Every structure is written in structure tokens, then in C-alpha cells.
Amino acid sequence: MLKKKYASVLVATALVALSLGASLPTTQAAIPAIQVYISGDTNVQDLWEKTLVPAFKLANPGYDVNVTLDLHGTHDAQETAKITAAFATRKDAGADLIDGGFVQQLGSAGLLFKGTTALIPNLSTVSRAVLTIGKGGIPYRASAVLLAYNSTNVKTPPKTLDELLVWVKAHPGKFTYNTPSGGGSGFAFVQTVIDKYLTNAERKTLVLGVNKDLQPKWKTGLETLRGLNAYTYGKNGTYPANNAETLKDIATGLVDMGTVWSDQFASAIKDGTMPANIKVTQIANPAFTGGAAYLGIPRTSKNYKAAQVLANWVLSPAGQNLIVAGTMNGMPVIPVSMLDPKIAQGLSTVDVTNLRAPYFSANGNDLKSAWALAVPGK
Amino acid sequence: MTSTKTDVVAEGLGAAKAPRLSVVGFLMALPPLLLVLFFVGLPVLIAFTFSLGFTTGPNRVLSMIGQEIHKKDQWWGTFSAYKDVIHDPRFAGDMRTTLAITFISTTLVLLMALGIGIYQRMIGGRLASVMTALTLVPLFVPVVIAAWAIHTFYAGDGFMRSFFSQFGIEFPTVTSTVSAIAIGTIWTSLPFAILMVTSGLQSIPDALIETAQDAGAGFIRIIRTVLIPLAITPIVIAGTFTAIGILGSFTIPLFLGPNQPTMLGVEISNFFGAYNRPQQSIVMAFIVFASASGIALIYIWANVRSAKQSGRI
Predict the structure, then answer these.
(1) pTM here?
(2) Which of A260, B105, B109, B116 has a CB 3.0–4.6 Å from the CB of A265, allowing a cystine?
């Protein structure tokens, strides 16, 4: 009885093995799913999961994509550590394409396949300046920080940073920006005020690499920011925790003015969470920062060829159209003339190549800490 | 006397008779011990060496990525990261805020728990049971939801301000203040303290209270000389658990507190994430750990005291 059972199991196993062996050479080896790792807000998740990935799979049969989200980039440091460790031990880190703020850091540490036209042909349509800042990352969309204002209460919004600072002091409690460590829109305001007191060359140095020597020059800007404590919302030197809270404060009418991300603002208008009387504008001298978001293909990835196909497709006019027209409301990194004319129409006139870039991440971390030391609650 | 003797004999016999049982018992106790040893003890040890500037081995990757890393300059390490933290102007404010919130909230929580516990013990009845049951509701509300609810209640555009503005009263904005942290921590810590304290008070025999009443003791005197002394162990345990919980709280101060000064839980996360200074964040974690150990000593004292009273040691 038992023997019989064993025999049948053996036969079955042999059959399965035979059929597997027979089928393997005939069918094409399946491409493993591309592991996309996102560090960002839910709008970036929606961009990938609902817009880009379905369209990519339709255009490239045989490819599969798996998206993982790290909300607000809470684990950026751990993910960086994981990829660094995986590179050192020659293991797969489990991510084939990374979309996050730490991509440049990985790039400058030599942990990415360098984004070149040889690997990603469509990069030839992307501006060289944007590529350089990427440190090997692949720019794929852009967004800028803008000044949002309540057009019912503010008829003529400030046009320059100086005008904005005057406006803030003339309207106590009606302006806010979130903590730089909590979100990029607040960080952009802080960096812009700091940059007011720096030369162009100094700004560029801080964008391109680590620099400690220039940091004492932040002092004047930080003092200006501290001087605003009595005039920003709450009038007591407290600031919203993140981008979403700033948007909420503007939408509910708590404040009349604040700094916001262009893409998050456009999405909020579309969703109806932002009233129509809230408008956005860009200031000058200096302008708020913005820039490209970068993709990185880690050198630990075993599936990097498929990741290259995906990155190249995202940079094609088809991919860029989706970034601009979809729920993301992003800015393209390729010339607007290459987009669908209907979609290009709705695009603001902001030129990606002219955006003032944010500081290199290590300098940015130091600025977040310096702000927390000098400004809130003082 | 005789009964104690037979107990001892019986215990002795049990121990001698069942060595296999004790092995099984030991094996059953082993998994949690190993878990704590490998997944808590070992990482704590590694983190401690990192805080002293040991940047090789398991700390290699973190020290490659972090900023402001101090490498050891003596065989035993360096205190540079500790000096960094102590000389950081943020730290003194954060430490003060953390200790003040812990002390004030724990005191208020204990007072409230005693209030409801004594009410239930001395007066009792349906209303007391309903009230006790209601105070346990926060136990079933996740902290993050509670924090957000409190935020929308007291924020600049929150319920309190909207409600009072109907009558022309300007209610203050409580969020982004230290008071909001206190409100939040009390709200979340109260149920556990009430459970501990009420059960402690319930276990006091009626006879003792009645005897005191017969001897002419008033309400306050019964509380002071009978109820609290007899329930002191559960009260101390409730207090230490509450204090340790508040000391390490993160969500409440993150959502409800000011940007600066904040509680150390939030500052540790800022240093580790936003400022990318893992070594300094670990130093702060050890300082919180040391403070919590101080509170834990009180807990151990209370346990030893109750063990002595019941004759276990």
C-alpha cells in the first residue's frame, strides 16, 4: 500500500520534471518583475501604480512591474544603507529602479548605473544642466515650489522675495511655510531666504556637493527667518509639520499665503480640495527652488536591463505626456514641443532648465538642523 | 507553622521529582529570552559601541552614510558624540520638556485614576461602573487617530475655536504647544492606569474599610491610611508604566507639539532622519534609556515590596 503510494508520487514527480524540462527551452525565459522603489508622497505612488505602469505594460508586453512605496521617504537613510551594504557584499538590494530624493546621494557614491545616452537613448532630449545635477540619476519629471495666495484677500501678490518679506510683516499671522525637515515646500522657502545673502557661485557650490565652509554664511538668512517668527501663522514661531498641512492651512483660509509644490497644488485644485480663489505665482530674486525628480538604477540590480527599458520609456513623449496630463500634474523634462500639443497647452510657462536647484542632500540635512536650531520657538 | 513546613516539603519533593518538567519549563521560557537577547540586547550593544565611535564591523554601513560621525581615538572609544549632544542648544530644551511632560502627565494621570478608583470602591453602583467603562475607551483608539482627533479639536480652525467664536469668544489655539502634548499623553495613558489602580483598590477587603469606619475614621482618613497604603504597589506600577510610556512617546508630540523644543522621541527621529546624524540620535536614545532605567528602579522596588509582603521572598 505504502510502496504503491511512493511509486505514484515518484512517477508524478518524474512527469512534472520531464514536462518542465521539455517546456523550458521552448518558451522564452520570463523577465522578472521590475522592482520600483518610491520614496515620496501618495501622488508619486498614484503616478506609478495608476498611470505609468499600466501604460508601460501595455506598450511593452512581457514586462511586469512591482511598486513599493516608502511614504514621505521616512526610511531614506535605511534604504541608502541597504543599497550601500548590498553593493559592498555584492547582493541584490531588491530594488531595480528608485524614485526618491536620495538618488543623487547614491549616484555620487558610485552606487548607480550612470544615466547616459548609451544606456538610456531618450536622455538625449533632456537638458545637460539637469543631467549634471543628477550625479548619475535619470531626471524624469520636474516640479517647482510656488507661492500660493488667496486671491480674494490678496489682490496683488508679491513679485520678488523682498516684496514677500515686506508683505509677511505687514500681515501678521497670514503667511506660513512648513518645517524644512517635514517637506520640500517649506525647505524651498528657507533655502530661498538663505540664498538671498549668497552669491551665485556660492549657491552653485552648495547645490553640487558637500560644503561645510560656506555654512557660516547662512547666519544672516537664518536671522531673517527668525525675525519672521512673530509674523507667521500662530505668531509664536511654530510651523506646520509637512506639505499637506500647509496646503490645508491655505485651503481652509487660516492663512492667505504659503509655499506649495506645483504638482501637489495642481492635484488639489483638480480634486476640489483647494478652493478656486487660491492662485499660485512664482517670485523672483531669487525664485523658489524646484527641479527634476531623479530615477536611479542601482548597480546591485540583477534586472537592470529591464529597468533601463522602463526608464527609457518614461522619458519618451508617451511617458512624459502621462506625467503632465495625469493626476501628477508634473512638468516634463523633455522639450515641451515634443509633447502632445493638447497637453502642452495646459502647461505653465516654467522652464525646467531655469529652475533653481535645491542644495545637495548633505547640505540640505545640515540646513534643516541649522533652521531647527535658529528659528522655531525662538 | 506546620502548614508552612508541609508546603516546603511538597515543593522540595516537586523539584526533586520532576527534573524533566523543569527542563521543559526552561525551554518554554527560552524563546522570549532569546528574542530579547538577539533582537534587542545585541542591537543595543552594537548601537552603544557606535555611540562611542566604533565605526567598523556592524556599524560600517551606518558610518559610511551618516553625517558628523566621530571615530574613536582611544582604545575604548570617544565621547565626542556625547559632547555634541550635550553642547547642542536644542538638547537642554528637549530634555526639560520631556521630563516636565513626563512628570506633569504622570501625576495628573495617577490623580485621575485614583479619583475614579476611589469613587468606584467607596461609593460604587451603576454610575461608577459606567464611568469606569467609559474611561477605558481610549484603550481601543489607536494613538495616531487620537492624536489627529485632538489636533482637529484644538487647532486654529478646530472645533473649540469654531464653537466659541459663535459667541464672540476667542478660544486659544492649543495645538503646537506643550499643553497639547500633555492633553494627548494624559488621554492615551489614562485607561491603563485606571485599570491598574481600580483593580488594586477593588482587592482591598470590605472588612478593613468597615473596621476603619467603625473606629470613627472619616472618608479622607480611610483613603489616606487604608486605601492608598494597601494599594500602593499597583499605584506605583501604574505610575512607572505611565511614566516610561510618556518618556518615549513619539506620535503625540509629533502631531501636537511645537517644532522646538520638542520631546526627545521626536528629536531622535529628526536627528536620525532629517539631519542624518545617526550617532547623535543614538546618544539621545541612550539618555532616554538611562532616564527610563531610573523609573524602572522604582518599579522593581514596588515589586520587591509586594513580594516581601506576600512572603515570596
Answers:
(1) 0.80
(2) A260
